[in-house]
Amino acid sequence: MAKKVFSKDLYAILGVQEEASEKEMIKGYRKKALKCHPDKNPDNPKAAELFHELSEALEILTDAAARAAYDQSRKAKKAVVERNKALDSKRKKFKEDLEAREQAAFEQTQKQKDIVNEQKLAAEIARLRKDGSRLLEQEQERLREELRKQSAEVEQAPREEEQGETPRIKLKWKTAKDDPNNGGYSADYLNRIFSCYGHISTLLVSTKRKGSAIVEFETSGVSSDILDETGLKDNPLSITWLSGKPPKHTSESSRNKDLSGNEDNFTFNSRTYPGSQTNQTNLFGSGPGLGNSSPSTNQKDEGKDFESLVLMRMRQAEERKRLIEQMMKEDEEG
Questions:
Q1: Which domains does the chain have, with CATH numbers?
Q2: Distance from C-alpha of 280 to C-alpha of 206, rounded to nearest angstrom
Q3: How far apart are CA 224 and CA 197, in angstroms?
Q4: Is pLDDT at 313 greater than 50 in this prediction?
Q5: Where is the composition biased (Basic and acidic residues) (predicted)?
Q6: In sequence order, what are the residues at sequence separation of 6 or more whose Cβ sits closer than 8 angstroms to the Cβ of residue 327?
Q7: Residue 318 or residue 241, greater confidence
C-alpha cells in the first residue's frame, strides 16, 4: 500500500505546490472533494476511487512525519531520474566521441587506400605509355590491314568521279531471223574483237532479236577508235555509244594487241537468263590486290574512296539490270 502511495504525486492530486502549507492543502482538498464525491457523481464508476485517493493524499501530507517520509522518497526518486539523465548524457557523449573517432580512423584508412590505388593506377599508366599496349597495337594493326584491303580495292577499280560513266556501246549487224549463225557474230567472236579496245566487264547478245548486242567495258583504258571497228568485211558492224564515250586522244596502244594472244588469255563465261534468251558475261571481274599499300595512307580518304567504290558498283549493277530489261523488251517486241 505504501509503495503504491509513494509512487503517486500527492501534491498534484490535491492541486498544490510542494511548499504548500497545511491550510493550502485543506483548501485544495475541499475544492476537489466537491467535484469527485461519489454522491455528486453517481454515473462515474471511478468517483469513489478518486475520492479515496484525494482523502489519502490529505491524510499523509497533513501528518508531519508521513509528509517527511514521502518527501524524502520523492527526492530520492528525483535524484535517480537526474542521475540517469546525467548517465544518459555521458553515454551519449561517449558514444558520439567513439563514433567520431571511428569515423576519423575510417576516413584516414580510406584516404591511405585511395592514395595507394592512385599510385598503382599511375604506375600502370606509366607502364602502358612506356611499353605500349599489346592489345591496342594488335587492334591498330588489324585496322591498318583492313584499310590496306580497302585501299587495294579502291585502286583496283577506277574512281567514278575521275573516270566518268561506264563505257557502253551498242552493236548492230544484218542477219536473217532464221540464221543459226546470227550473221556470223557470236558472243565469243564479239568478245575477241572488242577486248582489243579495253577490258570487257559485260557482254549481252540477244538470241531472239537477231543482229543486236551491248558491250560494257571497265571504266578505264577504252580506245577512242573503237568506232572504226567493222567486224566481218561481208557483214560490217554498226557501233554507237550508249555511255562513257572516251576522249579522242585516248591511247591506241590497246588496239595493237595481238588478236590471237587475246583469244588464248581470255576466259568468257556466259549463261542464258530465263525468258530473255540473252547471253551475258560475268558482271564483275576480279583482280589481284595491292599488297604494298602504305599503312600511312590517310584513313579518312580511304574510307570515302571505299564508299564511292561501293556506290559506283551499285549504280553499275542497276544500269546493267536496266539494259537487260531493255533487251528483254526489245526481244518481246521483235
A1: 2-62 (1.10.287.110), 155-287+295-333 (3.30.70.330)
A2: 9
A3: 8
A4: yes
A5: 249-260
A6: 204, 206, 209, 212, 214, 276, 278
A7: 241
